[in-house]
Amino acid sequence: MTAAQGDPNGTALDPGPDLALKILVAGGFGVGKTTLVGSVSEIRPLRTEEELTSASESVDDTGKVHRKTTTTVAMDFGRITIRSGLSLYLFGTPGQDRFWFLWDDLSDGALGAVVLADTRRLEDCFPAVDYFERRAVPFLVAVNCFADSRSYAADEVAHALDLDRGTPVVLCDARDRDSGKEVLIRLVEHAGRRYTSPVLDSVG
Ligand SMILES: Nc1nc2c(ncn2[C@@H]2O[C@H](COP(=O)(O)OP(=O)(O)OP(=O)(O)O)[C@@H](O)[C@H]2O)c(=O)[nH]1
Ligand SMILES: [Mg+2]
């Protein structure tokens, strides 16, 4: 109903002001963070990729990510509209330990975080899990299912990571837009339960 249709205040179906939420995409080196932000973003994603050089061979383990030639050195940025009036601004973190100093600025004001995990090297996401648990930032673990990795059930991953009860674990393919979007919707729902917001409650 609109004002012209007899709703003088125009409030009957007013979805309220647009809401933009900040979400972090974190996790270990080469787990697919840049891929996820790029696959879901409806704007051309901002990337800060640099070539991996022989100088970093001893610290950057590319053994499980063949064909990986670049790495994020500052952040990824993208945007996705979840539904009318609700957008997510996505900030992908760098995966390597030497860029930890960027995390506090990147996580400032974030509603929540996706921790991407690769089951072939689950331990790489421990620092991210620990970081968000310590700061009480709502997060979920999204297992990026690489074709050549063994598949595990979500509860096996939750157990292996010793996650708090209620921390969701979802399986995804970071290259697939719908799969990535589903991860983000689950995160917003999860964070919405924490903050009890009617706007977030209506996402699903
Ligand atoms: N097979 C497969 N390859 C993937 C998948 N996701 C990412 N990749 C590949 O894995 C490599 C790593 O992906 P990135 O998105 O750069 O990983 P990242 O987490 O941003 O890496 P850093 O920023 O260096 O920590 C790339 O070569 C991707 O093409 C996936 O789901 N399946
Ligand atoms: Mg990256």
Structure description:
By secondary structure, the protein is an alpha/beta fold. The protein has one domain (18-193): P-loop containing nucleotide triphosphate hydrolases (Rossmann fold). The chain has helices at 33-40, 103-107, 126-134, 154-160, 177-195, 198-201, and strands at 19-27, 49-51, 70-72, 76-83, 86-92, 112-117, 139-144, 169-172. It has a six-stranded mixed sheet with strand order 4-5-1-6-7-8, sandwiched between helices. The chain is globular. The chain starts with 18 loop residues before the first strand and ends with a helix. The structure holds guanosine-5'-triphosphate (GTP) and magnesium ion (MG). Magnesium ion (MG) binds next to helix 1. Magnesium ion is lined by residues 33-34, 72, 76, 92, 95.
Topology:
Blueprint: E1 19-27, H1 33-40, E2 49-51, E3 70-72, E4 76-83, E5 86-92, H2 103-107, E6 112-117, H3 126-134, E7 139-144, H4 154-160, E8 169-172, H5 177-195, H6 198-201
Parallel strand pairs: 1-5, 1-6, 6-7, 7-8
Antiparallel strand pairs: 2-3, 4-5
Helix pairs in contact: 1-5
Quick one: biggest sheet?
A: 6 strands, mixed
Q: Return Rg in Å.
A: 18 Å
Give the CA-CA distance, first to last residue.
Answer: 23 Å
Q: What's the total number of strands?
A: 8
Hetero groups in this structure are:
guanosine-5'-triphosphate, magnesium ion
Strand content: 15-25%
Q: What string gives the helices and strands in order?
A: EHEEEEHEHEHEHH
**What is the 3D shape?**
globular
CATH topology category name: Rossmann fold
Q: Indicate the mean pLDDT.
A: 87
CATH C-level label = Alpha Beta
Helix content: 25-40%
Structural class call reads: alpha/beta
Would you identify the regions where 5 or more consecutive residues have pLDDT less than 50?
1-6
CATH-derived architecture: 3-Layer(aba) Sandwich
